[in-house]
User: Which sequence fits this backbone?
């Protein structure tokens, strides 16, 4: 197993893309160390992506792309601008609200960061906000995307753990809102200390006009989440509905989407879906090899020897995920670790739905942590700001996200209350 792990880490250090690093290290292990046929690699990579749950992933990604191309994101951002009003640091609150609204369709942090950041960072800079802070608040707010339903991360976790996707979506709702509140608190403190400009006051007519313009887009998450939580559709079916509704709105209501735009949108979605699914497939193979070499009972015994306290076990797991998040992509961490952690969770009587939320929250911090921290590089590219400048303004948001993660870990009802209330209706 040492060869497997060390070869993967070495390839990551050398700058090899995550999916290839995981796949090549798996192949090296099978050829050089094990007595298995290399065909096992092919079989495991193939079966890793051959999961019905993962079918929802490309549909939600496509819905997010249609939403951006149809101008729905810009209308939702304009609505957030109208609602915030003349608060100190008003545009930073707009960023958080806009990311929440976009998150209810796309379910992906990168999509939220690129869509909202490309509009809000130039606007914030023009109004006198430091560019590094503008990029930092956009990066931190983008972490709401994979927590508030529908979430790509929860789909990946469900595909490995066997937990209901719909229940995970429900469980992520309140923690996702708590992230937004925590980021807004940081924005309020920073705005007061740094003297950030106030937002603009809008007349009632402007607010009503913004609401009317955004209303068809606002119905998109209502259809998705209402269908899932009401037990009317599965998450995959909800993704299909979101795509169909987005196309109808873009082509026939807003008329900002053209048939000629569809090949480009489909190509972008295909590339993103392929990249994510390739990592998932290779990580599935890597996880199979780890599970084959490491008896899950040994993993359980290790934690039982270290501590019998549930709170300390959760703290250790959060620390492990945060550490891995600095060098690995979140989806691959979930695929590799989840099969090993499920017996541990059972031995400590931790609900796998609850832990799925904690897992996702910890991974979100990894998206902001160098050297891998993909959100840092996305925002650096979108805003033309150095990663160093973003990091200098990001530290209070790290504290806020860590606090939310710990609250979610030690207050299970934050995740499970809605599941207990409505989980039985989910299809």
Assistant:
């Amino acid at each position: 197993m040492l060869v497997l792990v060390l070869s993967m880490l070495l390839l990551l250090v050398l700058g090899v893309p995550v999916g290839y690093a995981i796949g090549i290290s798996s192949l090296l292990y099978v050829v050089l160390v094990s007595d298995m046929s290399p065909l096992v690699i092919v079989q495991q990579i193939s079966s890793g992506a051959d999961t019905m749950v993962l079918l929802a992933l490309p549909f939600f990604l496509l819905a997010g792309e249609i939403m951006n191309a149809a101008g729905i994101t810009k209308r939702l951002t304009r609505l957030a601008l109208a609602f915030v009003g003349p608060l100190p640091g008003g545009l930073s609150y707009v960023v958080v609200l806009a990311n929440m609204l976009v998150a209810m369709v796309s379910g992906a942090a990168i999509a939220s960061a690129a869509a909202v950041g490309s509009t809000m960072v130039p606007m914030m800079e023009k109004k006198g906000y430091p560019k590094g802070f503008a990029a930092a608040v956009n990066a931190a707010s983008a972490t709401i995307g994979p927590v508030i339903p529908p979430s790509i991360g929860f789909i990946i976790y469900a595909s490995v753990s066997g937990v209901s996707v719909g229940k995970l979506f429900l469980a992520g709702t309140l923690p996702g809102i708590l992230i937004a509140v925590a980021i807004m608190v940081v924005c309020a403190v920073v705005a007061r200390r740094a003297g950030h400009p106030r937002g603009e006051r809008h007349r009632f007519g402007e607010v009503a006009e913004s609401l009317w313009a955004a209303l068809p887009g606002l119905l998109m998450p209502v259809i998705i989440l209402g269908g899932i939580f009401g037990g009317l559709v599965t998450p995959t079916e909800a993704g299909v509905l979101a795509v169909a509704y987005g196309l109808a709105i873009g082509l026939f209501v807003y008329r900002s989407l053209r048939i000629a735009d569809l090949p480009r949108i489909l190509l972008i979605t295909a590339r993103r879906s392929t990249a994510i699914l390739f990592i998932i497939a290779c990580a599935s193979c890597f996880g199979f090899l780890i599970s084959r070499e490491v008896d899950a009972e040994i993993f359980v015994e290790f934690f039982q020897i270290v501590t019998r306290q549930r709170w300390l076990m959760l703290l250790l797991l959060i620390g492990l995920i945060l550490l891995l998040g600095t060098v690995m992509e979140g989806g691959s961490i979930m695929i590799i670790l989840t099969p090993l952690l499920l017996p541990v969770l059972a031995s400590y009587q931790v609900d796998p739905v609850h832990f799925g939320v904690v897992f996702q929250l910890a991974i979100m911090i990894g998206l902001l942590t160098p050297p891998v921290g993909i959100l840092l590089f996305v925002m650096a590219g979108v805003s033309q700001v150095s990663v160093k400048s973003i990091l200098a303004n990001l530290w209070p948001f790290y504290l806020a996200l860590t606090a939310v993660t710990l609250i979610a870990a030690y207050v299970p009802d934050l995740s499970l209350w809605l599941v207990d209330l409505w989980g039985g209706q989910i299809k």
User: Anything to note?
Assistant: The CA atoms of residues 82 and 207 lie 5 Å apart. The mean pLDDT is 85. DSSP finds 20 helices and no strands in the chain.
